[in-house]
Amino acid sequence: MRIDLHTHSTASDGTDTPAELVRGAAAAGLDVVALTDHDSTRGHAEAIAALDGLPDGPTLVTGAELSCRLDGVGLHMLAYLFDPEEPALLAERELVRDDRVPRAKGMIAKLNELGVPVTWDQVARIAGDGSVGRPHIASALVELGVVPTVSDAFTPEWLADGARAYVAKHETDPFEAIRLVKAAGGVTVFAHPGAAKRGRTVPESAIAELTAAGLDGIEVDHMDHDAATRDRLRGLAADIGLLTTGSSDYHGSRKTCVLGEYTTDPEIYGEITRRATGAFPVPGAGGRSV
Question: Is the pTM of this model over 0.85?
Answer without folding.
Answer: yes
